[in-house]
């Protein structure tokens, strides 16, 4: 309501500007009537009265117009309104033609604050047909449109195959270079050592030994099947089998290696009771029964 | 053209197709005419009232009144102006009456400076049925 300090929103300023204009109008009317000065309270009273008078004419004329099932007020509605408010309509033309007339300039039109161009992002959505034009616009689209931040991965077969192949090649290359850098290397060229390093081959004294001997896992598996069956026959059988396939020279090594393997296998069995990793379990071969 | 009735009713006068009762006292007679101010509305196009159209339109819009014709707005602003100036004239009469009521000398007319005070405005408004009561300020 005017008369009290307001926060200063655009709507309030709008209202206050028009209120001030009314005050100026009232003052000019008083001057026309012959007053030189007036009390502030008197001017405020008259301003309030003229504002409520205009509002009441508008409200009442609208009511009369709607009473006859219309929406656009006409002259007749206003005449009836004025008559109802005790206004003598006949005297209005005479008053209009009075001599001293003063014109007050309209209050300045302030535009609504517009967001600067730099801050707007994207095209605002236009109003649907059921929304009147004087309503404010939609906000920027980024406030209500959600776009996912990831891109759909490529699922083309050819691209995927190429990717898999290049990845595998890179992994192999990286691994070999790593082994070459950390282990011993041999080079093809005499003078240039670092260009093409080859992983050095470790020569075994008995190269075919690893091919002939059973692997650690196979030894464990043999132990397992033997212990489960509690069959000494297979145990004594397998040992001379291995002994016979070896050459005469490294027989000693063989037995010692075998013994080491069995001891290791025994310890391994104990460990295996604690860590039961299915991928580390020995391969289970079918039991071969041999009749003797 | 206004239709005229063929047969006059037995009692009372007919004027412009509207029944006009015989005036009981001579001074007040109902006036029957077409919609008043229609001609005046045409003249309003050249004339600009003191209240700007924007201000009147603003207050009318707040009340829900959407004017199709700008002359309607001028008519309303004129009516409001006349309302206030009538009150102002009445207050001026009160002021003049108070000034010369005590019988001051006729040689010099009452000084031209009239100041509108609440003491003059209150009785003027009371004639219109508006009762204002401003509180006395304690200083």
UniProtKB/TrEMBL annotation, chain A:
Subcellular locations according to the entry: Cytoplasm; Nucleus
Record keywords: Cytoplasm, Developmental protein, Differentiation, Nucleus, Transcription, Transcription regulation
Ranges where the Bromodomain associated domain occurs: 14-91
Keyword Nucleus: yes
Gene Ontology cellular-component annotations: cytoplasm; transcription factor TFIID complex
Biased composition (Acidic residues): 221-235
Keyword check for Transferase: no
Compositional bias per record (Basic residues), positions renumbered to this chain: 282-292
Region ranges (Disordered): 220-292
SMART domains membership: BTP (SM00576)
GO terms for biological process, alphabetical: cell differentiation; transcription initiation at RNA polymerase II promoter
InterPro entries the record matches: BTP, Histone-fold, TAF8, TFIID_su8_C
Compositionally biased region (Polar residues): 255-266
Single Gene Ontology MF annotation: protein heterodimerization activity
Family: Belongs to the TAF8 family.
Name of the protein this chain belongs to: Transcription initiation factor TFIID subunit 8
Species name: Cephalopterus ornatus (Amazonian umbrellabird)
From TrEMBL, chain B:
InterPro entries xrefs: TAF10
Keyword match Metal-binding: no
Compartment list: Nucleus
Broad class of the protein's primary localization: nucleus
GO molecular function ontology, one term from the record: promoter-specific chromatin binding
Keyword Ribonucleoprotein annotated: no
GO cellular component entries: SAGA complex; transcription factor TFIID complex
GO BP, one annotated term: transcription initiation at RNA polymerase II promoter
Domain of life: Eukaryota
Pfam families membership: TAF10 (PF03540)
Alphabetically ordered keywords of this record: Nucleus, Transcription, Transcription regulation
Family recorded in the similarity comment: Belongs to the TAF10 family.
Name of this chain's protein: TAF10 factor
Source taxonomy: Eukaryota, Metazoa, Chordata, Craniata, Vertebrata
Gene: Taf10
């Amino acid at each position: 309501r005017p008369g009290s300090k307001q926060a200063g929103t655009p709507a309030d300023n709008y209202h206050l500007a028009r209120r001030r204009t009314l005050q100026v109008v009232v003052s000019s009317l008083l001057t026309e009537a012959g007053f030189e000065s007036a009390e502030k309270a008197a001017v405020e009273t008259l301003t309030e009265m003229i504002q409520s008078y205009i509002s009441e004419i508008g409200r009442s004329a609208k009511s009369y117009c709607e009473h006859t099932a219309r929406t656009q007020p006409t002259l007749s509605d206003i005449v009836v309104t004025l008559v109802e408010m005790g206004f003598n309509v006949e005297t209005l033309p005479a008053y209009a033609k009075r001599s001293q007339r003063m014109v007050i300039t309209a209050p300045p039109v302030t535009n609504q604050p517009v967001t600067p161009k730099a801050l707007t992002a994207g095209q605002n959505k236009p109003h649907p047909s059921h929304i009147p034009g004087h309503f404010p616009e939609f906000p920027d689209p980024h406030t209500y449109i959600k776009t996912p931040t990831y891109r759909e991965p490529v699922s083309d077969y050819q691209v995927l195959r190429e990717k898999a192949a290049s990845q595998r090649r890179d992994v192999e290359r990286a691994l070999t270079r790593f082994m070459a850098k950390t282990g011993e290397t041999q080079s093809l060229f005499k003078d240039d050592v670092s260009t093409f390093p080859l992983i050095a081959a470790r020569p075994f004294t008995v190269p075919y030994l690893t091919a002939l001997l059973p692997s650690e896992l196979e030894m464990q598996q043999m132990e397992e099947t033997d212990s489960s069956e509690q069959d000494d026959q297979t145990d004594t059988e397998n040992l001379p089998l291995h002994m016979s396939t070896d050459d005469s020279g490294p027989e000693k090594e063989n037995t010692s290696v075998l013994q080491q393997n069995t001891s290791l296998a025994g310890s391994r069995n104990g460990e295996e009771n604690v860590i039961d990793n299915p991928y580390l379990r020995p391969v289970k071969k079918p039991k071969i029964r041999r009749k003797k | 053209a206004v239709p005229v009735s063929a047969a006059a009713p037995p009692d009372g006068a007919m004027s412009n197709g509207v029944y006009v009762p015989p005036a009981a006292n001579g001074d007040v007679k109902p006036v029957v005419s077409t919609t008043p101010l229609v001609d005046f509305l045409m003249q309003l196009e050249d004339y600009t009232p003191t209240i700007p159209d924007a201000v009147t339109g603003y207050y009318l819009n707040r009340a829900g009144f959407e004017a199709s014709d700008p002359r309607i707005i001028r008519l309303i602003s004129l009516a409001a102006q006349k309302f206030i100036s009538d009150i102002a004239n009445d207050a001026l009469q009160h002021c003049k009456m108070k000034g010369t009521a005590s019988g001051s000398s006729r040689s010099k007319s009452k000084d031209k400076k009239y100041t509108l005070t609440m003491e003059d405005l209150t009785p003027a408004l009371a004639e219109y049925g508006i009762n204002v009561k401003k509180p006395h300020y304690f200083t």
